[in-house]
Design goal:
0% strand; flat; mainly alpha; 9 helices
């Protein structure tokens, strides 16, 4: 079982690498063939990764997110899925050049630290756990897409300011389209992030007898939520667009990554379990 899981995850990584290379190829030259290769590779990688996730779940008889390895793998799976949904729906394959490297890095990291399945701590054996974890990772993945779009926006804006209106400029979407997609992904990711925090609070009340205990991860989750709440409020009420929204989307995702990894690896608290 462990062998089949490793094979499937390795296959997913190889497909993600091919997709990443194709995405970089689209930066240098627009090509339908390259775009199709990227999409096909990422779809194959996502399917293999989803199969690996199911195998690990069967092996552990639980949602496989109890260790650092499993959490990284789950996040990479959601990253690939959310990117594919946005890309295929809006025909922006070049966005992969800004998202796929993160998927590859996280999947590789997960693959390098595979450990045998261990019994889940009692606190993880709760019906709230799947809701909290899956909603959180879905929100994080959509906000990663928002971050990628923010980077793309800043790059396109820089090309325009330098009057480099050939080459890469023609292959990137217009500033208006990038900004619109960024707003859509933010409008999806922020509610998912919010629901993840709410279900986590409800889970905490069952597990620890309190909805909120100002654990380091809870504190940083709240900081991250306020950053995105300010960004969404600014876009809706104040009309924030363009550069400001792009920069804040990058800052917000940096806070997400610190909350997800930095807090668990550098700080101690109620959210640190076993190898995590």
């Amino acid at each position: 079982m462990h062998s089949s899981y490793t094979i499937l995850l390795t296959l997913a990584l190889l497909c993600y690498v091919i997709g990443m290379a194709a995405g970089f190829g689209l930066i240098w030259q627009a090509s339908r063939r390259t775009s199709r290769l990227e999409n096909a590779a990422l779809i194959a990688g996502f399917v293999a990764h989803a199969a690996a996730f199911v195998v690990r779940g069967v092996q552990s008889d639980a949602l496989p997110v109890a260790s650092l390895h499993e959490s990284l793998s789950c996040f990479a799976l959601f990253l690939a899925g959310c990117y594919l949904w946005v890309s295929l729906r809006n025909r922006v394959s070049i966005l992969g050049a800004f998202i796929n490297p993160l998927t590859v890095i996280i999947t590789l990291w997960a693959l390098l630290i595979i450990r045998p399945v261990e019994p889940h701590p009692p606190v993880l054996k709760s019906l709230w756990m799947p809701l909290h974890v899956l909603l959180s990772f879905a929100g994080h993945a959509m906000l990663a897409v928002t971050c990628g779009l923010g980077i793309m926006y800043l790059l396109q804006e820089r090309l325009i300011k330098r009057k480099k209106v050939k080459g890469l400029f023609t292959r990137l979407p217009s500033l208006g389209k990038i900004d619109q997609l960024s707003y859509i992904s933010l409008s999806i990711g922020f509610p998912l992030l919010t629901l993840g925090i709410i279900t986590g609070s409800l889970w905490a009340s069952v597990a620890w007898g309190a909805y909120w205990s100002w654990d380091p991860k809870e504190t940083w989750s709240l900081i991250t939520w306020f950053l995105y709440a300010a960004l969404l409020h600014g876009r809706i009420s104040v009309g924030w667009r363009g550069r400001r929204a792009a920069v804040l989307s990058i800052v917000g995702f940096a806070a997400i990554m610190f909350t997800f990894l930095g807090v668990n690896l550098l700080l101690t608290g109620l959210h640190t379990y076993g190898s995590f």
